[in-house]
Amino acid sequence: MSLPQHTDATLRYQQQVDNSKNYVLPFIRQEFPALEGLRVMEIGCGEGGVLTPFLEAGCRCVGVDLFPERIELAKGFLGNYVENGQLQLIAKNIYDVDFFGEFQHAFDLIILKDAIEHIPDQDKLIAYLKNLLTVRGQVYFGFPPWYMPHGGHQQICQSRVLSFMPYIHLLPRPLYRGLLKAFGEHDGTIKELMELVDTGISIERFEKIAGQTGYHITQRKYYLINPIYKYKFKLKPREQFSWLKGIPFVRNFFTTCMYYLIRPNN
Ligand SMILES: C[S@@+](CC[C@H](N)C(=O)[O-])C[C@H]1O[C@@H](n2cnc3c(N)ncnc32)[C@H](O)[C@@H]1O
Q: On the chain, which terminus has fewer CB atoms closer than 10 Å, C or N?
Protein backbone atom coordinates (compact mmCIF):
# COMPACT_ATOMS: atom_id res chain seq x y z
CA MET A 1 0.00 0.00 0.00
CA SER A 2 1.39 3.35 -0.96
CA LEU A 3 0.67 6.10 1.59
CA PRO A 4 -0.27 9.56 0.20
CA GLN A 5 3.07 11.03 1.30
CA HIS A 6 4.95 8.46 -0.80
CA THR A 7 3.69 10.16 -3.98
CA ASP A 8 2.95 13.68 -2.71
CA ALA A 9 6.21 15.55 -2.05
CA THR A 10 4.46 18.64 -0.68
CA LEU A 11 2.60 16.56 1.90
CA ARG A 12 5.84 14.77 2.80
CA TYR A 13 7.62 18.10 3.19
CA GLN A 14 4.82 19.50 5.38
CA GLN A 15 4.86 16.39 7.60
CA GLN A 16 8.63 16.81 8.04
CA VAL A 17 8.14 20.49 8.98
CA ASP A 18 5.35 19.82 11.51
CA ASN A 19 7.19 16.93 13.15
CA SER A 20 10.44 18.87 13.31
CA LYS A 21 8.80 22.01 14.74
CA ASN A 22 6.79 20.20 17.41
CA TYR A 23 9.09 17.33 18.42
CA VAL A 24 12.65 17.42 16.99
CA LEU A 25 13.37 21.08 17.67
CA PRO A 26 12.06 21.06 21.30
CA PHE A 27 14.15 17.93 21.96
CA ILE A 28 17.28 19.65 20.61
CA ARG A 29 16.48 22.89 22.48
CA GLN A 30 17.16 21.03 25.74
CA GLU A 31 20.86 21.22 24.82
CA PHE A 32 20.78 24.34 22.59
CA PRO A 33 18.27 26.81 24.10
CA ALA A 34 19.45 29.64 21.81
CA LEU A 35 19.24 28.57 18.18
CA GLU A 36 20.02 31.79 16.36
CA GLY A 37 23.32 31.61 14.48
CA LEU A 38 23.75 27.87 15.20
CA ARG A 39 25.50 26.00 12.37
CA VAL A 40 23.49 22.92 11.46
CA MET A 41 23.97 20.10 8.96
CA GLU A 42 21.34 17.49 8.14
CA ILE A 43 22.54 14.23 6.58
CA GLY A 44 19.75 12.62 4.53
CA CYS A 45 17.71 15.82 4.45
CA GLY A 46 15.27 14.64 1.74
CA GLU A 47 12.89 17.49 0.87
CA GLY A 48 14.42 19.68 3.60
CA GLY A 49 11.39 19.96 5.89
CA VAL A 50 13.29 18.96 9.04
CA LEU A 51 15.59 21.97 8.53
CA THR A 52 12.76 24.48 7.99
CA PRO A 53 12.09 25.33 11.69
CA PHE A 54 15.85 25.64 12.25
CA LEU A 55 16.09 28.09 9.32
CA GLU A 56 13.11 30.02 10.71
CA ALA A 57 14.94 30.22 14.06
CA GLY A 58 17.98 31.80 12.35
CA CYS A 59 20.29 28.78 12.05
CA ARG A 60 22.72 28.53 9.15
CA CYS A 61 22.17 25.16 7.52
CA VAL A 62 23.63 22.60 5.13
CA GLY A 63 21.47 19.75 3.82
CA VAL A 64 22.99 16.66 2.15
CA ASP A 65 21.05 13.93 0.37
CA LEU A 66 21.95 11.02 -1.86
CA PHE A 67 19.11 11.65 -4.32
CA PRO A 68 19.37 14.72 -6.59
CA GLU A 69 15.57 14.67 -7.15
CA ARG A 70 14.96 15.18 -3.44
CA ILE A 71 17.52 18.00 -3.28
CA GLU A 72 15.74 19.66 -6.24
CA LEU A 73 12.46 19.42 -4.30
CA ALA A 74 14.19 20.94 -1.26
CA LYS A 75 15.41 23.82 -3.44
CA GLY A 76 11.81 24.34 -4.53
CA PHE A 77 10.50 24.46 -0.95
CA LEU A 78 13.41 26.42 0.55
CA GLY A 79 14.63 28.51 -2.40
CA ASN A 80 14.46 31.78 -0.41
CA TYR A 81 16.94 30.48 2.16
CA VAL A 82 19.27 29.20 -0.57
CA GLU A 83 19.16 32.61 -2.27
CA ASN A 84 19.93 34.57 0.90
CA GLY A 85 22.87 32.26 1.70
CA GLN A 86 21.37 30.76 4.88
CA LEU A 87 21.08 27.28 3.34
CA GLN A 88 23.38 25.16 1.21
CA LEU A 89 21.96 22.01 -0.40
CA ILE A 90 24.26 19.23 -1.62
CA ALA A 91 23.21 16.20 -3.71
CA LYS A 92 25.83 13.63 -2.71
CA ASN A 93 26.43 10.40 -0.86
CA ILE A 94 27.57 11.44 2.61
CA TYR A 95 30.70 9.35 2.08
CA ASP A 96 31.61 11.43 -1.02
CA VAL A 97 31.32 14.91 0.52
CA ASP A 98 34.68 16.67 0.81
CA PHE A 99 34.28 17.52 4.46
CA PHE A 100 37.92 18.14 5.14
CA GLY A 101 37.98 20.75 2.40
CA GLU A 102 35.01 22.76 3.57
CA PHE A 103 33.39 21.61 6.77
CA GLN A 104 36.06 20.61 9.28
CA HIS A 105 34.80 21.56 12.78
CA ALA A 106 32.06 23.63 11.15
CA PHE A 107 28.84 22.42 12.80
CA ASP A 108 27.30 22.92 16.24
CA LEU A 109 24.61 20.40 15.40
CA ILE A 110 24.44 17.49 12.95
CA ILE A 111 21.00 15.96 12.35
CA LEU A 112 20.31 12.41 11.15
CA LYS A 113 16.54 12.08 11.20
CA ASP A 114 15.30 8.70 9.90
CA ALA A 115 18.61 8.38 8.06
CA ILE A 116 21.12 6.35 10.12
CA GLU A 117 19.14 3.14 9.50
CA HIS A 118 19.72 3.61 5.73
CA ILE A 119 23.46 4.26 5.85
CA PRO A 120 26.09 1.47 5.86
CA ASP A 121 29.20 1.40 8.11
CA GLN A 122 27.49 3.36 10.85
CA ASP A 123 30.43 3.05 13.24
CA LYS A 124 32.75 4.59 10.65
CA LEU A 125 30.35 7.46 9.96
CA ILE A 126 29.57 8.24 13.61
CA ALA A 127 33.29 8.25 14.51
CA TYR A 128 34.01 10.54 11.54
CA LEU A 129 31.30 13.06 12.47
CA LYS A 130 33.46 14.22 15.38
CA ASN A 131 35.76 15.90 12.85
CA LEU A 132 32.87 18.07 11.69
CA LEU A 133 31.70 19.27 15.10
CA THR A 134 32.65 22.50 16.85
CA VAL A 135 33.79 22.28 20.49
CA ARG A 136 30.19 22.51 21.72
CA GLY A 137 28.91 20.29 18.92
CA GLN A 138 26.40 17.44 19.27
CA VAL A 139 24.75 14.95 16.92
CA TYR A 140 21.00 14.29 16.90
CA PHE A 141 19.60 10.93 15.77
CA GLY A 142 15.96 9.96 15.31
CA PHE A 143 15.33 6.42 14.06
CA PRO A 144 12.98 3.43 14.32
CA PRO A 145 14.73 0.53 16.10
CA TRP A 146 15.14 -2.43 13.75
CA TYR A 147 13.07 -4.89 15.82
CA MET A 148 9.98 -2.69 16.11
CA PRO A 149 6.84 -3.89 14.27
CA HIS A 150 7.58 -1.97 11.04
CA GLY A 151 11.35 -1.64 11.55
CA GLY A 152 11.91 -3.05 8.05
CA HIS A 153 9.96 -0.12 6.48
CA GLN A 154 7.56 -2.67 4.94
CA GLN A 155 4.90 0.08 4.85
CA ILE A 156 6.42 1.03 1.47
CA CYS A 157 5.21 -2.28 -0.03
CA GLN A 158 2.57 -2.08 -2.78
CA SER A 159 0.79 -5.04 -1.22
CA ARG A 160 -1.68 -3.88 1.43
CA VAL A 161 -1.25 -7.15 3.33
CA LEU A 162 2.55 -6.88 3.53
CA SER A 163 2.50 -3.17 4.31
CA PHE A 164 0.38 -3.80 7.42
CA MET A 165 2.08 -7.03 8.53
CA PRO A 166 4.31 -6.44 11.58
CA TYR A 167 7.70 -8.09 12.14
CA ILE A 168 7.99 -9.79 8.68
CA HIS A 169 11.41 -8.15 8.24
CA LEU A 170 12.69 -10.38 11.06
CA LEU A 171 12.17 -13.54 9.00
CA PRO A 172 15.34 -15.28 7.78
CA ARG A 173 16.65 -13.33 4.80
CA PRO A 174 15.72 -15.85 1.99
CA LEU A 175 12.22 -16.26 3.44
CA TYR A 176 11.70 -12.49 3.66
CA ARG A 177 12.93 -11.97 0.08
CA GLY A 178 10.69 -14.84 -1.11
CA LEU A 179 7.66 -13.35 0.63
CA LEU A 180 8.25 -9.94 -1.00
CA LYS A 181 8.61 -11.63 -4.41
CA ALA A 182 5.52 -13.79 -3.88
CA PHE A 183 3.42 -10.69 -3.22
CA GLY A 184 4.69 -9.10 -6.45
CA GLU A 185 6.82 -6.31 -5.00
CA HIS A 186 8.95 -4.40 -7.53
CA ASP A 187 12.66 -5.26 -7.75
CA GLY A 188 13.53 -1.73 -6.54
CA THR A 189 11.40 -2.13 -3.41
CA ILE A 190 12.90 -5.57 -2.69
CA LYS A 191 16.43 -4.17 -3.09
CA GLU A 192 15.67 -1.25 -0.74
CA LEU A 193 14.08 -3.50 1.88
CA MET A 194 16.90 -6.06 1.71
CA GLU A 195 19.50 -3.28 2.12
CA LEU A 196 17.69 -2.28 5.31
CA VAL A 197 18.23 -5.81 6.67
CA ASP A 198 21.96 -4.91 6.68
CA THR A 199 21.71 -1.32 7.91
CA GLY A 200 18.75 -1.48 10.34
CA ILE A 201 19.91 -0.57 13.86
CA SER A 202 18.76 -1.57 17.35
CA ILE A 203 18.81 0.56 20.51
CA GLU A 204 21.64 -1.53 21.96
CA ARG A 205 23.78 -1.46 18.80
CA PHE A 206 23.35 2.31 18.46
CA GLU A 207 24.38 2.93 22.07
CA LYS A 208 27.31 0.52 21.75
CA ILE A 209 28.59 2.33 18.63
CA ALA A 210 28.17 5.74 20.31
CA GLY A 211 30.19 4.55 23.34
CA GLN A 212 32.90 2.82 21.31
CA THR A 213 33.40 5.81 19.02
CA GLY A 214 33.95 8.18 21.96
CA TYR A 215 30.58 9.84 22.61
CA HIS A 216 28.26 10.07 25.58
CA ILE A 217 24.49 10.43 25.43
CA THR A 218 23.22 13.84 26.58
CA GLN A 219 19.52 13.32 25.79
CA ARG A 220 17.51 10.19 25.01
CA LYS A 221 13.80 9.66 24.41
CA TYR A 222 11.89 6.42 23.75
CA TYR A 223 8.56 6.61 21.93
CA LEU A 224 5.90 3.91 22.06
CA ILE A 225 4.14 5.88 19.30
CA ASN A 226 6.43 7.81 16.96
CA PRO A 227 5.53 11.53 16.75
CA ILE A 228 5.57 11.37 12.93
CA TYR A 229 2.54 9.00 13.12
CA LYS A 230 0.49 12.00 14.26
CA TYR A 231 0.98 13.52 10.82
CA LYS A 232 0.96 10.28 8.83
CA PHE A 233 -1.83 8.37 10.60
CA LYS A 234 -3.47 10.82 13.06
CA LEU A 235 -2.21 8.80 16.06
CA LYS A 236 -1.40 10.52 19.33
CA PRO A 237 2.37 10.38 20.09
CA ARG A 238 3.20 8.58 23.32
CA GLU A 239 6.42 8.09 25.21
CA GLN A 240 7.43 4.54 26.09
CA PHE A 241 6.37 3.09 29.50
CA SER A 242 9.17 3.63 32.05
CA TRP A 243 9.26 -0.03 33.08
CA LEU A 244 9.66 -1.18 29.45
CA LYS A 245 12.47 1.29 28.70
CA GLY A 246 14.57 -0.56 31.28
CA ILE A 247 14.33 -4.01 29.66
CA PRO A 248 17.20 -4.34 27.14
CA PHE A 249 16.42 -6.01 23.80
CA VAL A 250 12.70 -6.55 24.62
CA ARG A 251 12.12 -2.76 24.52
CA ASN A 252 13.13 -2.74 20.82
CA PHE A 253 10.03 -4.70 19.81
CA PHE A 254 7.64 -2.08 21.22
CA THR A 255 9.55 1.17 20.70
CA THR A 256 8.66 2.72 17.34
CA CYS A 257 11.14 5.58 17.55
CA MET A 258 14.23 6.76 19.45
CA TYR A 259 15.55 10.31 19.72
CA TYR A 260 19.16 10.86 20.85
CA LEU A 261 21.64 13.69 21.27
CA ILE A 262 25.25 12.56 21.64
CA ARG A 263 28.38 14.58 22.35
CA PRO A 264 32.08 13.69 21.92
CA ASN A 265 33.73 12.87 25.25
CA ASN A 266 36.34 15.60 24.86
C1 LIG B 1 13.67 8.30 5.23
S2 LIG B 1 14.49 9.62 4.45
C3 LIG B 1 14.46 10.85 5.72
C4 LIG B 1 14.29 12.24 5.19
C5 LIG B 1 14.17 13.32 6.28
N6 LIG B 1 15.37 13.40 7.07
C7 LIG B 1 12.97 13.05 7.17
O8 LIG B 1 13.13 12.90 8.38
O9 LIG B 1 11.87 12.98 6.64
C10 LIG B 1 16.20 9.11 4.45
C11 LIG B 1 17.04 9.98 3.53
O12 LIG B 1 18.41 9.63 3.68
C13 LIG B 1 19.03 9.72 2.42
N14 LIG B 1 20.25 8.93 2.41
C15 LIG B 1 20.36 7.57 2.56
N16 LIG B 1 21.66 7.20 2.48
C17 LIG B 1 22.37 8.34 2.29
C18 LIG B 1 23.77 8.59 2.12
N19 LIG B 1 24.64 7.60 2.11
N20 LIG B 1 24.17 9.87 1.94
C21 LIG B 1 23.27 10.87 1.94
N22 LIG B 1 21.93 10.70 2.09
C23 LIG B 1 21.49 9.44 2.26
C24 LIG B 1 17.96 9.20 1.46
O25 LIG B 1 18.17 9.62 0.14
C26 LIG B 1 16.69 9.78 2.06
O27 LIG B 1 16.31 11.00 1.48
A: C
